[in-house]
Design goal:
There is one protein chain. Strands 1-2 form a two-stranded antiparallel ribbon. A two-stranded antiparallel ribbon has the order 3-4. It is α+β, with helices and mostly antiparallel strands and 83 residues long. Helices cover 20% and strands 16% of the residues. The model is unreliable at 1-12 (pLDDT under 50). It starts with 23 loop residues before the first strand and ends in a 5-residue tail after the last strand.
Length: 83
């Protein structure tokens, strides 16, 4: 059996990985994926919980994935420098 005949054709599914060809996924350019990544990072930033205080979480009053409203305490923080 000839080894060359068992290799996939360069015009097959892996053709987009050849040097000099733009990387694509499911027919969409990578640039579109970068735009979506930037959009998702912006959404994540909007929903990030940030404390105005330094400290260590002593207790957590909500569970991961739980919906909360504005003003609901999420954590009890303690400043270890004050102990």
């Amino acid at each position: 059996m000839d080894v060359e005949t068992t290799r996939p054709s360069q015009t097959g599914r892996a053709a987009h990985l050849l040097p000099g060809r733009p990387a694509r996924r499911r027919g969409r350019p990578v640039e579109a994926g970068r735009g979506q990544l930037a959009e998702q990072q912006g959404i994540l930033e909007r929903f990030a919980v940030k404390s105005p205080l330094d400290g260590v979480i002593l207790t957590r009053t909500v569970e991961l994935g739980e919906w909360v409203n504005v003003g609901v305490p999420l954590y009890t923080l303690v400043d270890l420098d004050q102990l």
